[in-house]
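Narrative of accomplishments. A recurring question from our advisory board has been how the design workflow behaves on a single, concrete structure rather than in aggregate. To address it, we present the structure tokens for one chain from the evaluation set, followed by the sequence designed for it. No filtering or post-editing was applied between the two.
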């Protein structure tokens, strides 16, 4: 396999840089700066320092023996990104990009957020590195995610409501890009997933690939073999890409990305970009996209706000077409059942996003052999979802 993306940021036919002229230049400068920093020992050591002493890396790899006993076969391991500061894998990326912003002389970061998880992680990094932080968030999401809005504000970030379009993540991303166009001199756009124009899909993947690197070492030590299956949920695609990346060359490691089927694919209320989308352009990249036949972007639906995005990172689109990664969709109901099962078996409440990855186990485990090793990326913890869970499950 050739190293992807190519110099222009293409993963096969996907990716690229579909942005206005001003940003072509900014993306080019960012690419050059990043290519230089990634090879610089001091920068890499600094990133590692913050990941270890501030965020809480390396995260544990836990063998879920009770859960495996429940299914009656196989070995199940959980990569515990839920144990990180701010509760999910997002801090891996915001700390690294925050450091990068500082190193390239920017004093201000802008970020988009849907549920507010990336907004909180970005605002947190801004505190650590002394950067001004503006977060764009759809007015509808602001209403739905009051607690995270409060957290961002108390962390010192300015939260700007976006009232255009559907007033959700898609529109917030457009506004963040617009802000960057107008302030490229002093501003870094701290994008939250493996999406957007080149170099973001590559750079965010690299920053998140610490998840897979650690997992590889840990599983070789514990199970004395590579995993047979890797499972991760796919919203924009950053926890899954970071988890899968260091195993792509190991042809025997099967990988499955789980996206949100919402109320069911047939209902039309879902975020199953890979199953129901077609290639299109959104937010500066070419990738699978939920759109109608006139090219209008469709609204995505999921019980977990973090999977509620109508497109997906371009490298995932490439991996889908190449067949290297399989993508399946999980309904809200299946995710809730998985939340309940993991909580009862292991005393771990997963984020509803991560519950989508867990929800594939009942489908997979009956097909596994006794010696098979399955590793699930537990991208985040469930604290933020307790109100939603409470509406659906009785204690
Ligand atoms: C944001 C989020 C996701 C989805 O984003 P990816 O870029 O697909 O990883 C998944 N899990 C959690 C806990 C999140 O906060």
């Amino acid at each position: 396999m050739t190293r992807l993306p190519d110099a222009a940021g293409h993963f096969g036919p996907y990716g690229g840089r579909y942005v206005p002229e001003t940003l072509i230049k900014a993306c080019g400068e960012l690419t050059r700066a990043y290519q230089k920093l990634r090879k610089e020992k001091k920068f890499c050591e600094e990133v590692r320092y913050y990941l270890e002493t501030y965020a809480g890396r390396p995260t544990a790899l836990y063998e879920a023996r009770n859960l495996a006993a429940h299914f009656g076969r196989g070995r199940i391991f959980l990569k515990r990104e839920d144990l990180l500061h701010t509760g999910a894998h997002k801090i891996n990326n915001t700390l690294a990009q925050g450091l990068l912003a500082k190193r390239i002389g920017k004093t201000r970061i802008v970020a988009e957020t849907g549920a507010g998880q990336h907004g909180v992680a970005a605002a947190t990094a801004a505190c650590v590195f002394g950067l001004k932080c503006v977060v764009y968030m759809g007015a509808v999401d602001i209403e739905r995610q009051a607690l995270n809005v409060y957290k961002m504000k108390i962390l010192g970030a300015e939260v700007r409501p976006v009232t255009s379009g559907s007033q959700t993540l898609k529109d917030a991303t457009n506004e963040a890009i617009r802000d960057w166009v107008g302030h490229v001199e002093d501003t870094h756009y701290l994008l939250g997933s493996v999406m957007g124009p080149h170099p973001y899909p590559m750079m965010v993947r690299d920053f998140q690939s610490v998840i897979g690197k650690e997992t590889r070492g840990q599983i070789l030590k514990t199970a004395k073999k590579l995993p047979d299956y890797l499972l991760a949920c796919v919203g924009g695609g950053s926890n899954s890409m970071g988890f899968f990346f260091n195993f792509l060359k190991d042809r025997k490691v099967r990988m499955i990305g789980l996206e949100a089927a919402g109320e069911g694919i047939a209902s039309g209320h879902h975020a199953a970009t890979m199953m129901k989308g077609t290639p299109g352009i959104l937010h500066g990249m070419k990738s699978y996209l939920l759109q109608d036949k006139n090219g209008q972007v469709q609204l995505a639906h999921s019980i977990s706000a973090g999977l509620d995005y109508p497109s997906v990172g371009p490298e995932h689109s490439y991996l889908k077409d190449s067949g290297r990664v399989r993508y399946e969709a999980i309904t809200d109901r299946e995710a809730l059942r998985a939340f309940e099962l993991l909580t009862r078996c292991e005393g771990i409440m997963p984020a509803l996003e991560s519950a989508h990855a867990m929800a594939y186990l009942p489908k997979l485990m009956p097909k596994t052999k006794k010696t098979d090793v399955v590793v699930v990326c537990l991208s985040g913890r469930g604290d933020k979802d307790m109100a939603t869970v409470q509406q659906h499950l009785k204690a």
